[in-house]
């Protein structure tokens, strides 16, 4: 059954319209699955529509033509316009609506409030006591103050135990003295720190009576609330241009014996009494909750970034006509090539899969905060830390790969900033680094896996959590023809074997006399492999669960095709692990490959609608190639004509330098 696709409009590119007519599901219904609710999917459309009626919210020029200064100014200008319209555009208490509004209006370039909402306010929510809530949270939420999260230093980002910024408690004045003892102790990288924020949650080593208690979060005023000048004792500025986020002011920050009151240690979980007595938190890493939050949200955020790039690439592939198949009198859409489908469709499946498992980690994070704040229960923290460490690493890596494939799938025009794909790529791959460098975080999950295998080895398999229970079983022979479960079992086997092999290897090094750290380092590559497999298994399982729970039959059927593609693609990608011990046969390999190719064919008629279902407006897409109406060529020409270089036919640099060179050559 074909659905009246709401994206079809008169005057659209006919090739795209043809694609939309073949859809077997309703894109509004699919959007409900992608955004988690009918309400949010609908509100996104309404918000986009409302934004389009406010001319001041439009980009003043295409963003790729702006220089850094203009990008920062443009972002800040739009924020001030938004501020006037906020209440009419969104329910300000609805995070999903706010997130969509910012993506729509601000683009990807970054803006002064980027870290305020994502880390500053959440750090207060997770770490501030009731009195501190009272003092700071309302002001922050009303945006009387703008904050950021200042943890990373010039010399240390991954190894938090070695952060050098000190917060030394002075009982006589009941103050902490914040100090930057060396150049490497400068805070470096925090988003929105350089020029926009007047407050920060600063993570510093707490020192009481010459004893270090490790990194703790403090709320610190950086700038005068009236003049916005840095306060005496504060050195703050912008760190310069980056691969992306160039509308944002990632910054540096130094303290020269800067004093803050005792109440500014965020003290919901640990505190310092007036006399300098330290009260420990219920969990040593509880101060890291703002990081766990961002990591928990990253899978959905990254899935949407991948969806953004794929919307551009798939739509363009349906309007790009080049080369022949059977009929040599008509060129075909490049989307008809199997290689193009293989490049793009598995990435669509991954985008959906990442979004679905992200919903699960967001739910787990919300539960953790509820438990911690209501009764100090931190029992979910270790599991969530392990899970999100692996997930952010695997997802950001694959999203980077997927976006890069999307760029290549657009041929030469993909390389132009008119496609906007390079901007999306720059933003997405930042995620491989921020919130914990990917290798470092994979090794965090590996600690958890090794401990789990050790539990099994010592006869305590009953203590394993549900996510790792397969490490104690999972060696069934599998007939792949029997549905998603058999793929899960196969993947469990592969993942279990890798976790065990890596653990055995690590233990062997220790038996042979290496210290734990040296043995760990000698096994690190194998350990990261185990973490990736475990995480991919989790993603696969959540994808299956989500598809099973969908009630709209046409949507479920289209998702099932995507799921089947995902299962076959994933298994094929890791087949070497199963082939090396003969667990998988070459017949099974062939079976998987054929399943994969037939999934590509099944998905083909729905490809455009699967990306239309992300329902990115043209404003949010910011891509000439990805336009909903498919009118690519005239708009590419118009876009090029708007280049500042084309303001004059002869550039001053040509007159000044090139012409004299050419003239000289003539002599
Ligand atoms: C974890 C480390 C690497 C190591 O820590 P260390 O102290 O050395 O600990 P270990 O000795 O290795 O381990 C000791 C045990 O502690 C356990 N552990 C460690 N951390 C945790 C934790 N957080 N929770 C629970 N348990 C933890 C560990 O497993 C050990 O246990 P065991 O002994 O094995 O049992 C640590 O140093 C670290 O975390 N390093 C990384 C540093 C980092 O991540 N920095 C981030 C800085 S902030 C930043 O980067 C910000 C970026 C902003 C980007 C903004 C972009 C926004 C887009 C995002 C999308 C989000 C949308 C949100 C939308 C919305 O608002 O809704
Ligand atoms: C876009 C962006 C935004 C950011 N925003 C913020 C922010 O708002 N606030 C903030 O505080 N910070 C922010 N950061 C900083 C970011 O969190 C850190 O850069 C990140 O945590 C990585 O730390 P690092 O730079 O010290 O990397 P390094 O640890 O120096 O990594 C370099 C290499 O060393 C390897 N390595 C390091 N340690 C180990 C280990 N133990 N085992 C194996 N390999 C290891 C890594 O794998 C990597 O290959 C941001 C960074 C970026 C790029």
TrEMBL record:
Domain (Acyl-coenzyme A oxidase N-terminal) ranges: 26-146
Compartments reported by the entry: Peroxisome
Outline the extent of the Acyl-CoA oxidase C-alpha1 domain.
Answer: 289-450
Q: What is this protein called?
A: Acyl-coenzyme A oxidase
Which superkingdom is the protein from? Eukaryota
Give the family from UniProt.
Answer: Belongs to the acyl-CoA oxidase family.
**Record GO terms (molecular function):** acyl-CoA oxidase activity; ATP binding; FAD binding; fatty acid binding
Where does the chain bind FAD?
152, 191
A GO-annotated cellular component: peroxisome
Key words of the record: ATP-binding, FAD, Fatty acid metabolism, Flavoprotein, Lipid metabolism, Nucleotide-binding, Oxidoreductase, Peroxisome
Query: Which Gene Ontology biological process is one annotated for this entry?
Result: fatty acid beta-oxidation using acyl-CoA oxidase
UniProt lineage: Eukaryota, Metazoa, Ecdysozoa, Nematoda, Chromadorea
Q: Where is the active site?
A: 435
Q: Which InterPro entries match?
A: ACOX_C_alpha1 (IPR055060), Acyl-CoA_ox_N (IPR029320), Acyl-CoA_Oxase/DH_mid-dom_sf (IPR046373), Acyl-CoA_oxidase (IPR012258), Acyl-CoA_oxidase_C (IPR002655), AcylCo_DH-like_C (IPR036250), AcylCoA_DH/ox_N_sf (IPR037069), AcylCoA_DH/oxidase_NM_dom_sf (IPR009100)
Cofactor (UniProt): FAD
Which intervals hold domain Acyl-CoA oxidase C-terminal? 484-663
Pathway this chain belongs to: Lipid metabolism; peroxisomal fatty acid beta-oxidation
One Pfam match, given by its short name, reads: ACOX_C_alpha1
């Amino acid at each position: 059954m074909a659905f009246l696709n709401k994206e079809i409009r008169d005057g659209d590119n006919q090739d795209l319209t043809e694609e939309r007519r073949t859809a077997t599901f309703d894109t509004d219904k699919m959007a409900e699955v992608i955004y988690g609710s009918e309400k949010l999917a609908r509100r996104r459309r309404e918000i986009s529509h409302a934004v389009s009626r406010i001319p001041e919210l439009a980009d003043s020029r295409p963003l790729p033509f702006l220089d850094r200064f203009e990008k920062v100014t443009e972002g800040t200008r739009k924020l001030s316009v938004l501020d006037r319209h906020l209440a009419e555009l969104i329910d300000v208490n609805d995070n999903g609506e706010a997130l969509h509004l910012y993506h729509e209006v601000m683009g990807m370039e970054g803006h002064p409030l980027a870290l305020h909402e994502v880390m500053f306010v959440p750090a207060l929510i997770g770490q501030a006591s009731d009195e501190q809530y009272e003092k700071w949270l309302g002001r922050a939420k009303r945006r009387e103050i703008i904050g950021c999260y200042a943890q990373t230093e010039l010399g240390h980002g991954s190894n938090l135990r070695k952060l050098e910024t000190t917060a030394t408690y002075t009982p006589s004045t009941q103050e902490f003295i914040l100090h930057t003892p060396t150049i490497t102790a400068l805070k470096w990288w925090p988003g929105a720190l350089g020029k926009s924020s007047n407050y920060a949650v600063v993570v510093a080593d707490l020192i009481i009576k010459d004893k270090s208690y490790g990194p703790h979060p403090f709320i610190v005023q950086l700038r005068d609330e009236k003049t916005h000048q840095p306060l005496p004792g504060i050195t703050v500025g912008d760190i310069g241009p980056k691969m992306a986020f160039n509308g944002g002011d990632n910054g540096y920050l130094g303290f020269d014996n800067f004093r803050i009151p005792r109440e500014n240690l965020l003290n919901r979980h640990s505190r310092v009494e007036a006399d300098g007595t330290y009260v420990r938190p219920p969990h040593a890493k509880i101060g890291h909750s703002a990081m766990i939050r961002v990591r928990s949200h990253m899978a959905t955020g990254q899935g949407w970034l991948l969806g953004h790039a794929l919307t551009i690439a798939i739509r363009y592939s349906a309007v790009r006509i080049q080369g022949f198949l059977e009929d040599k009198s008509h060129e075909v859409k490049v989307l008809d090539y199997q290689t193009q489908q293989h490049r793009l469709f598995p990435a669509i499946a991954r985008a959906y899969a990442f979004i679905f498992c992200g919903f699960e980690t967001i739910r787990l994070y919300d539960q953790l905060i509820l438990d911690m704040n209501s009764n100090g229960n931190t029992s979910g923290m270790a599991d969530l830390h392990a899970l999100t460490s692996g997930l952010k690493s695997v997802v950001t890596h694959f999203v980077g790969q997927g976006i890069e494939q999307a760029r290549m799938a657009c041929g030469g025009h993909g390389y132009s900033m008119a496609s906007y794909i390079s901007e999306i790529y720059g933003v997405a791959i930042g995620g491989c680094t921020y919130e914990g460098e990917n290798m470092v975080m994979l090794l965090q999950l590996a600690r958890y896996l090794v401990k789990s295998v050790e539990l099994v080895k010592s006869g305590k398999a009953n203590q394993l959590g549900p996510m790792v229970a397969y490490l104690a079983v999972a060696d069934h022979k599998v007939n792949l023809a029997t549905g998603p479960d058999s793929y899960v079992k196969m993947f469990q086997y592969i993942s279990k074997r890798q976790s065990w092999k890596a653990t055995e290897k690590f233990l062997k090094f220790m038996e042979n006399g290496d210290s734990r750290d040296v043995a760990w380092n000698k096994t690190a590559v194998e350990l990261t492999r185990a973490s990736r497999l475990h995480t991919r298994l989790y993603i696969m399982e959540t994808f299956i669960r989500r598809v099973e729970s969908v009630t709209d039959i046409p949507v479920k059927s289209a998702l099932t095709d995507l799921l089947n593609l995902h299962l076959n693609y994933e298994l094929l990608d890791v087949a070497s692990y199963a082939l090396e011990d003969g667990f998988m046969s070459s017949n099974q390999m062939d079976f998987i490959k054929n399943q994969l190719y037939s999934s590509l064919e099944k998905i083909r008629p729905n490809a455009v609608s699967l990306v239309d279902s992300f329902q990115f407006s043209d404003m949010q897409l910011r891509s000439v190639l990805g336009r909903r109406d498919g009118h690519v060529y005239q708009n590419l020409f118009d876009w090029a004509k708007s280049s500042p270089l084309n303001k004059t036919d002869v550039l001053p640099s040509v007159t000044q330098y090139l012409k004299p060179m050419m003239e000289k050559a003539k002599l």
